[in-house]
Fold this sequence. Notes:
This protein has helices at 18-32, 39-45, 50-57, 60-66, 91-105, 112-118, 123-130, 133-139, 153-167, 185-192, 195-208, 219-225, 246-255, 299-302; strands at residues 109-110, 143-144, 275-279, 294-298. It is mainly alpha-helical.
Amino acid sequence: xxxxxxxxxxxxxxxxxxxxxxxxxxxxxxxxxxxxxxxxxxxxxxxxxxxxxxxxxxxxxxxxxxxxxxxxxxxxxxxxxxxxxxxxxxxxxxxxxxxxxxxxxxxxxxxxxxxxxxxxxxxxxxxxxxxxxxxxxxxxxxxxxxxxxxxxxxxxxxxxxxxxxxxxxxxxxxxxxxxxxxxxxxxxxxxxxxxxxxxxxxxxxxxxxxxxxxxxxxxxxxxxxxxxxxxxxxxxxxxxxxxxxxxxxxxxxxxxxxxxxxxxxxxxxxxxxxxxxxxxxxxxxxxxxxxxxxxxxxxxxxxxxxxxxxx
Length: 311
């Protein structure tokens, strides 16, 4: 009797020789089944990161080719398989890859981290071909990254909660560079000193503060942001406010397993599903904004409910 293999392998590889890395590519290819093998779906199953593999063999395409998996390669993970190697790509093909990636990410701009994470393109290639990454993006009809954009802790955590809810689990570093995220992974690493530290800061603040996530933005950052945000004075008691604070929303969504408590739908299963945190006894009927009076509902179940009581 055969048993199904778990999707995630918890242990990490101790042997990272070329032969072991190629064997891991083959193992993951069997685990995920037929179709293209992108760096994203490789990272979900593998015991070693795709960036390690790519650095060792020069490009993701070359790594798959050496493992005998050339047919599993798709340019940028979004277009159809191609037979043209990176060294033979024309300027027009490179620009088309950049446009395809931006379209897949749902944006009209890219940054170097997104290009490096999703394409087999080296920054040196863009510089040698077009003079700079910015010139390449301009030639592709795209905008450069939002250089100098500063985010408050609240903005970072709101975005992290959105992605966490969408996935139904803690996001990985590279997933913060893809929709629905609007704040890149680098913004978290720069602020907190590492991706794991960013997650720890979010969870500690959300679970440790019953009212809200504390804003630990530095004084200098607050000066930069003073024209971007309007801070309103809080009401006397959080439970007497209709607004549900970010930390409390995270607790309720996590408690309800990031699923609608009525129909069971979730963004992790249905990307069109939008989860809300809803008052069980409506706020307008005297319901308090406390955990026992809150629940996760999808938009479909919540629409039209208004301030009616459930049966």
